[in-house]
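Quick question, first post here. What does this chain look like in 3D?
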Amino acid sequence: MPDYGHELAFGSFLTPVASDPARVVALARASEDAGLDLVTFQDHPYQPGFLDTWTLLTWVAAATQRVQVAGNVLNLPLRPPAVLAKAVATLDLLSGGRAALGIGAGAFWDAIAAMGVPRLTPGDAVTALGEAIDVIRGLWDADERGVLRAGGTFHAVAGAKRGPAPAHDVPIWVGAYKPRMLALVGRQADGWLPSLGYLDLADAPAANARIDDAAHDAGRDPREIRRLLNLGSGRVQPTSAGFLQGPVEQWVDELLPLVLEHGFATFILGGDDEHALAALGQEVAPALREAIAAERGAAGTGTGPVRTAAALAARVPGVDYDAVPAGLRAVEPGDRAYATVRSTYVWPGAPALVLQPETSEQVAQAVRYARAQGVPVAVRSGGHGIAGRATNDGGVVVDVGRLDAVQVLDRAARLVRVGAGAHWGDVAAALAPHGLAISSGDMGDVGVGGLATAGGQGLLGRWAGLTLDRVRAAEVVLADGSVVRTDADHDPDLLWAVRGAGSHVGVVTSLDIEASEVGDVVLVVLTYDASDPARLIHGWAELVDAAPRELTSFLSLWPGRGATPPAGYAMTVWAGDDSDAAVAAIEPMLGLAPVLQQQAQQLPYAAVLPAPHARHSGAAEVGARGGLVDRVTPDVAGVLADVLRGSLADMVQLRAVGGAVNDVPAQATAYAHRTQTFSLLATTTADRRPALDAQWSRLAADITGVYRSFDTHPDRLPLVYPPATLERLRAVVARVDPDGVFGSDLPLG
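> Answer (accepted):
Ran it through. Tokens below.
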């Protein structure tokens, strides 16, 4: 199998010289600027003239934005696999999925042994590497129940706790030349990484055959194993002076057979030459990709993901996996990455397929494909919604998380374009240098698309309004796969529906939002002993309602456990840096209940909403009840207190939604609730839901609306959308989604 069909990738192989560390990092940045896909460093910990490769990898990952980073290859004998697994996973999480693990069994044993590691025979070193890979993969498999027992004679863990899981499916590439090592690659690795200085190309067919045979024996498809090659140095120049020393056409002619005849698909250039790296990324890479595409096209072959037998067996019957549009990333139940995308923040899911488009046109392709499958369709931006609509069982999930760009369109007008897949913490960080902010919930990991189209009850809400109140335009993929733009002059009815019922009308891919002028804010966090919850709730609400609009506060309460009394947690933001005014407004809150802990600071708004990009594992299905009230009366506070005392809810939360929220006319958006001042939420488990419902029914006279993201029970629909709003919304949905692809929970009859 001379060509394994992988997409081509290009990288740099940099020398980690300790005498000029700044230049090493500069070369890594230059690699990224040149458009290379990968930056790698050799790893010789016993070499006093070299930087420590792992420390360097972490530094370079922080100094770059896009490139993948890896050791080439890491010296296993000096890096215990259990710790290495955690280090790689940590780097992958911190870098947003940009770590790869290149690893070797160790070669220079005199130097290795001199550092205090027992010497191994070549055979034992191979065995140790195989054990290490088992340990590393086992520790990364955080979804597997129970502790890990893996390894053997040289590397073993006996009851180790798994995790953390990396942010993505980290590939393991092995440097190998001898038969036993090549067989190990075929059984256990994701890639083979030799160097031309040690590999005679005449031996490459036999090496590939040994890898392929071992893969077959292990029940694997040989195409699962990427072939990477360290090229040594090279230079693009007008005239030829040897291998990879000549014009771009010569490079293409010399690299083409390495792909087509020997299966290599990743080429890594050494030499520490910034000009050569630039030429590789900007001239050689596009030319070689074009040549390979032509050769594969003529041969009727192409690139695409390779599925193992186990992955094929995990496919859901009835879904046409082979019809997924070319170039559209798809994650199936049998893929290792599936565990990271199947569920949301709280809701477990088992979709048949998760599609991850990167452009609006790919979203349109995903919608058309999903419709053709005749299975449920879910749309996910950040996956935090407790309503549970961002995943499903047996259906297709369109995950727009890769549409995450943040762009300031017009600073004078404060107009910002935000991708629906961005996380609000990242949006806040991107806007902070411009002195801008958008009010957006209370957690930085929440996605833009879900929150900004449902409402957006945020920590600047009483001052800036709901998030959707600032939406001026949107790009939407409709149920028929068309991509449309809506604003005040182009289909304003669709924009009206997007602002409060966006999930009913299509897949929003980006939003133009008018941001607010915000620099520093004052954040005060108070933790209370909530032994008298009714008094705390009512007193807090009265103070917040009477406060200046610059003050927005959320109060969360948890029931007591055993001898521990109920606790309250008030998160309050003052929109601005007037600390004296903030203190004057917030200080009365100290007298509401015994304060267990307090924290007050002036800080950038972005620091209020960090985005940790936590992995979503669907811990438990949530039963939620919500409601909007004009006032928190003593009776309302009493009901919420009874919910806490009876431990009927895991959490009760009140959010301030008055002030600027109520300046907007009710008919202006599909979110029509413009008289209420507080939003209520209680979350519980399925077994306690009936008891919570019984208590919640006592609030029927006070609840005049429901925030759809907090309560999607069918009987709440009239409270989510008042009659006039519902009639208008159904008219829009009947026009843009008559088959109910997105609005299946909004009957048109």
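The longest strand covers residues 520-529.
The CA atoms of residues 35 and 505 lie 38 Å apart.
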